[in-house]
Amino acid sequence: MGLVTRAPQGVELRGLEKRYGEVAAVRALDLEIRPGELMVLVGPSGCGKSTLLRLIAGLVEPTAGEVWIGGRRVDDVEPGARDVSMVFQSYALYPHMTVAGNLGFGLRVRGTPRDEIERRVADAAAALGLAELLSRRPGELSGGQRQRVALGRAMVRDPGVFLFDEPLSNLDAELRLRTRDEIAALHRRLGTTMVFVTHDQVEALSLGQRVAVMDRGRLQQVGTPDEVYRRPTNLFVAGFVGSPPINRILLSRDEGGRLAGGPFALCAPADLDRATLGVRPEDLAVVPAGGLDSSTAGDSTEASDFRAAVLRIEALGSEQRVHLDGPGDGAWVARASPALRVSAGDPVDVSVRWERSHLFGPDGRRDETAARPVDRPGPR
Ligand code: ADP
User: Fold this and answer.
1) Cβ–Cβ under 8 Å, residues 26 and 147
2) Which atom from ligand 1 is nearest to the alpha carbon of 54?
3) How far apart are CA 251 and CA 136, in angstroms?
4) Could you count the other beta carbons within 10 Å of the beta carbon of residue 8?
5) What angle separates helix 143-155 from helix 99-109, to the nearest 10 degrees?
6) What is the pLDDT of residues 314-357, one digit of tens each?
7) Cα-to-centroid distance, 24 and ligand 1 (Å)
8) Domain final residue pick, 187, 208, 240
């Protein structure tokens, strides 16, 4: 018999709300996690993601709303009977028990027959590369091995849903990457529903099939990593996802009816008097000042969008980050190829890939109209 015998369960949250006195940790939250999906909840510290995970687990009682797991409403169901297993940041292993003892503990307290415990522990240990370590105690394991035991302990319970609460944050950078890959591989192999909480947007995008971005208790956007990155629903998501963060400048309608700010004069959608232009660092093309004109001689329609001074270069090997004394508040960052030859103090010409830039309205919501300078032809 394989490790997972059960069908994965979906999770549905309806109008979910959790208040602690004046603090609304989770507000009016609707979210559907599909059976077998790896969903990552991500947002800055204090945004409510751990509370949300605990609401699913039943460790926290909602102030309002409903939690459904596997098509069953579980608001009144004890955590232990919800068909979920949680993996905590702090492993919470029993130091006096062996790895085998830790793995089987949850099953023993449930009165699972001994031979079944042994079989499940052996299966989980094999799946996680712990078979050689079964007789060791947690104190004799590395951080990564302890993390795997914590994972294995959740696995042996064969849950319909795995819940992960920042399980990688105690690991060093290299182990973090490796364990992340292991969890992704485990998900592919088991096909179990997994809900994973992290404050790290890179971790979220690299691990999640979909990510749910939260801010101040509210769900901001749910989508594939690509959707969230390329079509952020608002300024918060645009700024939170992506590193270095998206460049932005405030624009307001001028007497000519254009959205103007710094060097930009953009076509203004009818309903926008103020907006924020957002441009990702990789959507800025940088060349030494004057370079565009000479390299495109004969094609004089090509022009840069603004000239700026290089403040600083971060040479990262595979790319350079070019910090610019740019428009707006002055700190723009461009991603450039290592082949670009510029240094601090040099003037550069910068072009915006307008088709990939974003306009956000005064309420922060992304406008469907792509930003476009008034002196450029429209799409098509
Ligand atoms: P995150 O996991 O995103 O860091 P949390 O879900 O832990 O955020 O917390 C969300 C908000 O709820 C925070 O403002 C936090 O201070 C508050 N909060 C969480 N748990 C409690 C609690 N037990 N009592 C009071 N306030 C809490």
Assistant:
1) no
2) 6
3) 62
4) 19
5) 20
6) 999 999 999 999 877 778 999 999 999 999 999 999 999 999 99
7) 9
8) 240
Question: CA-to-CA distance for 197 and 184, rounded, in angstroms?
Answer: 14
| Residue 292 pLDDT class (50, 70, 90 cuts) | low
Specify the ligand 1 atom closest to the Cα of 43.
Answer: 3
Q: Residues 17-34: what's their mean pLDDT?
A: 97
The per-residue pLDDT for range 205-226, each reduced to its tens digit, is 999 999 999 999 999 999 999 9
Nearest-CA residue for atom 13 of ligand 1: 46
Q: What is the pLDDT of residue 239?
A: 96
Compute the Cα dihedral for 321, 324, 329, 335 and give only its sign: negative
Q: Which domain holds residue 42?
A: 11-240
Entry pTM? 0.89
Instruction: State how beta strands 247-253 and 320-325 pair.
Output: unpaired
Task: Examine residue 67 and state whether it is found in any structural domain, yes or no.
Answer: yes
pLDDT tens, position by position, 239-259: 999 999 999 999 999 999 999
Q: Which pLDDT score, from 0 to 100, does residue 5 have?
A: 59
Find the distance separating the first CA and the last CA of the chain, reported in whole Å: 58
Asked, for residue 285, whether it belongs to a domain, the answer is yes
Give the chain's largest Cα–Cα span.
82
Domain assignment present for residue 377? The answer is no
363 belongs to a structural domain? yes
d(CA 56, CA 156): 20
Structure tokens at 282: 């990789």
Q: Is the same domain home to 55 and 24? A: yes
